[in-house]
Design brief:
Layout: H1 3-26, E1 37-43, E2 46-54, E3 58-65, H2 69-74, H3 82-88, E4 91-98, E5 104-105, E6 111-113, H4 115-122
Antiparallel strand pairs: 1-2, 2-3, 3-4, 4-5, 4-6
Helix pairs in contact: 1-4
Length: 144
């Protein structure tokens, strides 16, 4: 994979995960109870389904862009089989956000998408509305 394609894929993945996480925060879906919460939103004119699950240490984010019937059936479950990935939607990303550092890590399953979806997602400018520094520590009770 050449450098430009790798950079576009990385930016598209970051934009997709950040947008989904921000929508989840704005709707009050991110909690520390380890319960998976699904939701839908629009991004760059495309339908998106996503799910988040949080605990004391991390927040899991799973996102499918332009989901097919199979994609809706999987409801953003972590999909790792290449033949299935091609059939769930035009883009799929997953990642885990560290509550301590505010950065994404463990991008297992990572990002899979069509060239068109990658180009559209990579060109977006996503501004994070919430930052890790504003998240209360583990023992401060309810947060966001």
């Amino acid at each position: 994979m050449n450098g430009q394609i790798a950079a576009a894929r990385s930016k598209a993945q970051q934009n997709l995960l950040t947008a989904a996480l921000d929508v989840a925060f704005s709707r009050g879906l991110v909690r520390r109870d380890d319960i998976r919460r699904s939701f839908e939103f629009q991004l760059a004119g495309m339908d998106v389904i996503a799910a988040v699950r949080g605990d004391d240490d991390e927040i899991g984010v799973f996102v499918t862009v332009a989901p097919t019937e199979l994609g809706r059936k999987h409801d953003c479950a972590m999909v790792t089989h290449a033949k299935t990935l091609a059939k769930v939607g035009s883009a799929y990303a997953c990642g885990w956000l560290s509550r301590r550092t505010g950065t994404f890590y463990k991008l297992t399953g990572g990002y899979h998408a069509t060239y068109a979806a990658t180009a559209a997602l990579a060109q977006m400018s996503i501004q994070k509305e919430r930052r890790a520094e504003r998240w209360p520590a583990r023992n401060e009770g309810r947060w966001l």
